[in-house]
User: Which sequence fits this backbone?
């Protein structure tokens, strides 16, 4: 019988501040992302949390409103090192994206906010400083790093939500009862996403030229994968109550939006969902990148299985995910092999959009997290995880080097929670930390194959969050991996033979 792992709440000394008001400003329900980054390059994953500030007036912050940076102390605890990091921030921040944009071996950080978004360069020694990039207008939720043009450095994809003005917040709810709720996205005008090309550390806004900026949506998350197996990374963007986008990389600097044709813009009922977080990985071990998406209650969480030739099949109900998630609302998510049996499981950070759901329905606004255990036969079994809360961001890493994937989750108005070894079983495992030489230094986009399993290097996972770039494989009873194949973004192919399990291996591009 599977059991969920230990829960740690005492490590983090801050709460996720979202400043809920009687006016129910839309931004209040949207924080906050969490990012995994080894900022001091000691081989142990550290953590960054985006935090709100008094809004909507954007008046001066009060003590405790900072974003937070925590150093992994290698003993199961984390130390708050925000004060000297330069990452406190000045506005209402929502999410973060991690990538080494200048290929110096240090993890840099993009922080997305309601009125201001900032790219911070990691200078080493725990110090970060803003870097000039094209101005990000409007409300950014998060983003992700990928080398879309194959030039060896990481480009920045920025997800934007809607046009929002605190002075024009509509009233939603029941005025006769004095009951106010957060408004449906239909009351807000959509906005395009942004793409900034990295030209050796100088960023150029190519949103319009690339085609990314021509699609107007209500973006929540971005995830990268290879739709058609052509070796180029494509971008999937979840949209809130309007069709989601799938941008196919043409390889000439432009993208074609094929969400509808590919079968991932809508669900099988032809409905646009309140799509939230996403992960873009091979979930069924057939060598093709699939999509898992979270949404709200009564919508279920879509599982789009890659059928090849650029087409996906909605397997939400055949996989039993539909029945298991009908009553849940989900935010961040991730596809990871939590029990190391060789099959990726699915994680969901649970919590309703509304914080007063109980006043107008029989549902609870606070929910547990959810594990959907991969049975290896195309179906998944639900396992609740943790206590009920308004969970939002989630990120994944092996923080204590024991071979079991850990999960850190943010909670509105509460401290983050850290789940050690979600489904720890003692089976064999292998972690790979790739270092590109001809490719980008992070190895972002590299495809790794062990047996029937494939996994991809990416930090863009879930909602408003970033996870470890270490590629994790569960090996079950296999103490030695006979062959590991790595397809690098540069096109180079590498094979490793007879690799011992139960270690995190650093692999340099040949």
Assistant:
């Amino acid at each position: 019988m599977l059991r969920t792992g230990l829960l740690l709440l005492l490590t983090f000394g801050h709460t996720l501040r979202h400043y809920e008001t009687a006016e129910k400003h839309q931004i209040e329900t949207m924080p906050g992302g969490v990012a995994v980054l080894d900022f001091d390059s000691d081989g142990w994953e550290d953590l960054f949390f985006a935090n709100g500030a008094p809004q909507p007036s954007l008046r001066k912050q009060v003590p405790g409103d900072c974003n937070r940076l925590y150093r992994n102390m290698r003993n199961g605890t984390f130390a708050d090192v925000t004060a000297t990091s330069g990452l406190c921030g000045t506005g209402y921040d929502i999410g973060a994206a991690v990538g080494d944009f200048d290929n110096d071996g240090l993890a840099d950080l993009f922080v997305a906010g309601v009125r201001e978004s900032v790219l911070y360069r990691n200078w080493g020694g725990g110090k970060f400083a803003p870097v000039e990039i094209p101005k990000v207008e409007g409300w950014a939720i998060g983003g992700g790093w990928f080398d879309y043009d194959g030039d060896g450095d990481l480009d920045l994809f920025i997800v934007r939500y809607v046009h929002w003005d605190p002075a024009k917040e509509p009233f939603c709810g029941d005025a006769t009862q004095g009951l106010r709720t957060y408004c449906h996205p239909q009351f807000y005008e959509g906005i395009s996403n942004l793409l900034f090309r990295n030209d050796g550390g100088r960023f150029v806004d190519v949103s319009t030229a690339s085609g990314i900026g021509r699609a107007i949506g209500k973006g929540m998350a971005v995830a990268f994968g290879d739709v058609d197996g052509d070796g180029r990374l494509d971008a999937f963007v979840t949209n809130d109550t309007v069709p989601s986008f799938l941008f196919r990389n043409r390889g000439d600097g432009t993208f074609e939006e094929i969400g509808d044709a590919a079968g991932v813009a809508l669900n099988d009922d032809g409905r646009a969902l309140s799509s939230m977080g996403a992960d873009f990985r091979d979930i069924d071990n057939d060598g093709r990148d699939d999509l898992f998406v979270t949404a709200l209650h009564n919508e279920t969480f879509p599982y789009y299985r890659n059928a090849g030739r650029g087409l996906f099949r909605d397997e939400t109900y055949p996989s039993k995910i539909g029945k298991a998630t009908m009553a849940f609302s989900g935010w961040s998510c991730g596809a990871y092999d939590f029990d190391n049996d060789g099959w990726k499981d699915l994680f969901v950070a649970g919590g309703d959009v509304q914080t007063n759901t109980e006043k107008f329905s029989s549902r609870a606004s606070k929910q547990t997290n959810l594990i959907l255990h991969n049975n290896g036969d195309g179906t998944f079994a639900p396992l609740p995880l943790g206590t009920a809360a308004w969970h939002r961001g989630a990120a994944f890493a092996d923080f204590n080097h024991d071979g079991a994937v850990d999960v850190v989750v943010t909670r509105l108005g509460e401290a983050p929670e850290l789940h050690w070894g979600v489904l720890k079983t003692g089976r064999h495992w292998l972690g790979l930390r790739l270092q590109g030489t001809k490719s980008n230094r992070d190895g972002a986009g590299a495809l790794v194959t062990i047996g029937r399993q494939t996994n991809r290097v990416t930090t863009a996972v879930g909602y408003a969050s970033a996870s470890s770039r270490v590629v994790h494989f569960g090996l079950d009873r296999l103490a030695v991996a006979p062959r590991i194949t790595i397809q690098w973004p540069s096109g180079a192919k590498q094979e490793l033979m007879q690799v011992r399990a139960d270690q995190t291996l650093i692999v340099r591009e040949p």
Notes: The radius of gyration is 21 Å.
